């Protein structure tokens, strides 16, 4: 698995408080596995000392069938993709 460091503003849709779809880098992605909660991670410090749910890791597939694993977190400006893995 190759990791790519990226920072993209992301629109994330939730179903029952779990990621289901997102738009990132102009592409529509559908979550195609069970998302994993990211807690107490390196991103915690950027959330003003807030501990607990910091982000999500999930596999998503675009309309062309390309899949990646994404690490997303919520910042002051909304959701961001921090890293994507192929």
Beta-strand percentage range: over 45%
Q: Give the low-pLDDT segments.
A: none
Structural class: mainly beta
Share of helix, binned? under 10%
Task: State the total count of DSSP E strands.
Answer: 7
Count of alpha and pi helical runs: 0
Mean pLDDT: 82
The total domain count is 1
Mind summarizing the main beta sheet? 6 strands, antiparallel, barrel
Distance between the termini: 6 Å
Q: Provide the succession of SSEs.
A: EEEEEEE
Cα-atom radius of gyration? 12 Å
Major sheet: order of its strands? 1-2-3-5-6-7
Shape: globular
Description:
The protein has 86 residues and is mainly β. The chain has one domain. It contains no helices and 7 strands. Strands 1-2-3-5-6-7 form a 6-stranded antiparallel beta barrel. Strand 2 (18-24) and strand 3 form a beta hairpin. It is globular and about 35 Å long.
